[in-house]
Amino acid sequence: MIIVKLGGSIITDKTKYKAFRSKETENIIKELIKIKDNFIIVHGGGSFGHIMARKYNLPGKLNKNSLEGYTVVHNDMVELNIKISNLLLKYGITNIGIPPSSIIYNNKKNYNIFKKYFSVNIMPVSYGDVYLKNENYLGIYSGDNIVYDLSKIFKPEKVIFFSDVDGIYDKNPKKYNDAKLLKTVNTDFKSDNNDVTGGIMGKYMTMKKISNLGIQTYLINGFYPQRLNLIDNNEFIGTVV
Ligand code: ATP
Ligand code: IP8
Fold first, then answer.
1. What pTM was computed for the model?
2. Domain that holds residue 126
């Protein structure tokens, strides 16, 4: 089994509110269905999640404004999830969207339904979204954290994060032309964080936690999903943790 995170930076244009990258997402799905292994998909928020979350100060204390934001962000995320669901269905993958708000409360998580859906050939597709952290606090659960939770349960052979860059660099490659791609990361690197869930640094920390479970994790540029086939090969372009 392989667990795949479709990063918000590749499935959406993070600079434009609710700009879905349909072609790019479809190209990744086409590549995924070629592999023989089973896979589970989790997706991020991109411009369907982070822009409104920031506007409404989420995650944050429960109040009139954050409650409104909770509904806005969740509805936008459902919209994104449906787009991905329809693309998966186009390639014969029957599926169901599962928001974190229905499986997580107060640090208690129940992913039992995932195995049930699998057994009847329905792929559960979860995603980063708002959730009720406790009676006073509205949280945001990152898709990266869901990938970690599922890795503990399903013990996949590999975990793959698709993003819009070739991998983790020593500094943000979109800002610095001389940024160097880190094929493996065991050094410090710089990141700017514009995300409510921690950006690339948060992702690296999660990748490290997953690799501590004994699972290889990869960051691949989703604009070139065929790189998936070069994993474990010298020509592979991406970051391995
Ligand atoms: P989402 O959280 O919406 O699902 P994602 O999983 O695709 O998004 P991001 O958190 O957006 O991932 O991280 C990828 C972005 O991090 C890149 O677009 C890049 O501009 C930025 N970035 C900042 N610093 C670095 C770095 N040192 N190496 C690689 N990318 C970096
Ligand atoms: O993009 C957060 O999930 P991520 C989603 O996987 C929202 O970090 C709603 C901001």
1. 0.95
2. 2-240
pLDDT tens-digit series, residues 133-149: 999 999 999 999 999 99
Per-residue pLDDT of 26-66, as tens digits, reads 999 999 999 988 899 999 999 999 999 999 999 999 999 99
Rounded distance from Cα 191 to ligand 1 centre (Å): 8
Give the CATH number of the domain where residue 197 resides.
3.40.1160.10
Task: Name the domain count of the chain.
Answer: 1
Residue with CA nearest ligand 1 atom 15:
200
Alpha helix ranges (H) inside the chain: 8-11, 22-32, 46-55, 64-90, 112-119, 143-154, 199-211
Nearest-CA residue for ligand 1 atom 19 is 172
Q: Is the CB of 47 under 6 A from ligand 1?
A: no
